[in-house]
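Amino acid chain
________________
===
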Amino acid sequence: QVSSELCIMGRRAISVEELKAHSTSKDCWIAVHGLVYDVTEFLSKHPGGGEVIVELAGQDSTEAFEDIAHSDASREEADEFIVGWLEGHEEMKDAMTKRIAEVAASEGGSGQGRAALLAVGVVAVAAVAFFLARR
């Protein structure tokens, strides 16, 4: 059993100060709905251009992300860039832990199917957190 203090599938709690330290085109992190993404490698592939992401680097970009009305597919693709959750958003850690356990139990721990379901679960949790925060 993994301690709640340890990384969850390579993801961990990230402070606002650490997020702020990743604010350039060569090292670009953003936070959306309490999840932190390292989008450095994605900048050149972003359909709207990497510069729009770099302008938001090192900060919570939830409002800007939602203003654009990203597709479900783009939200799912973003999962591969998640490096952790912002401190103060432990509900994201708890949701990831629960979803990992559910997927592992339902699939007997198989690799690719488990990763795909985890990605869908993380997106679902982020959407729920967004709607709850708007109440």
Summary: Residues 48 and 68 are 10 Å apart (CA to CA). The radius of gyration is 15 Å.
